[in-house]
TrEMBL record:
It comes from the Bacteria. Residues 1-20 are annotated as: Disordered. The keyword Hydrolase applies. Its EC number is 2.7.7.7. Keywords: Autocatalytic cleavage, DNA damage, DNA repair, Hydrolase, Nucleotidyltransferase, SOS response, Transferase. One of its GO terms (molecular function) is DNA-directed DNA polymerase activity. This is Translesion error-prone DNA polymerase V autoproteolytic subunit. Belongs to the peptidase S24 family. The lineage of its organism: Bacteria, Pseudomonadati, Pseudomonadota, Gammaproteobacteria, Oceanospirillales. It comes from Halomonas mongoliensis.
Length: 146
């Protein structure tokens, strides 16, 4: 399996605000608000929303099908933060015997395991192998084909 390319986050990304609609509310007697009202004054910057610590954040592209049941598919972009302390239930990017993987960190019988969301893959006993957590997945960017 080819190793994915790790891309560090820009430590000072330029602001890229995009229109961010407000929830629709009732306006006037007709009950139909102006379509332009949805875009008044609110913006969303995905760097601000997804990258909390630029110096410890990196991006990677997913290969394989082991995490599809959790909404992480082949080709998805992961936003990973290496400053977050891994806890059970977190989805991690880690090395297992030198191979880079994306797995859920779980305790099974008080022992640490890396598990897949695909039942075709067995849990990996992290205590029995050479494993190292690289970071916790903060977000998944999934693009739809148009």
């Amino acid at each position: 399996m080819p190793h994915p390319k790790l891309i560090p986050a820009d430590p000072a990304p330029p602001a890229q605000p995009m229109p961010y609609p407000m929830p629709l509310t009732r306006a006037g007697l007709s009950g139909f608000p102006s379509p332009a009202q949805d875009y008044e004054g609110r913006t969303l910057d995905l760097n601000e929303r997804l990258v909390k610590r630029p110096s410890s954040t990196f991006f990677m592209t997913v290969t394989g099908d082991s995490m599809e049941a959790l909404g992480i598919a082949e080709g998805d972009l992961l936003v990973v933060d290496s400053a977050i302390e891994p806890r059970p239930g977190h989805i991690l990017v880690a090395t297992v015997e030198g191979e880079l993987v994306v797995k859920r960190y779980e305790l099974i019988g008080n022992r640490p395991y890396f598990t897949s969301a695909n039942p075709a893959y067995r849990p990996i006993p992290a205590a029995d192998l050479e494993c190292q957590a690289w970071g916790v997945v903060r977000a998944v960017v999934h693009e739809y084909t148009v």
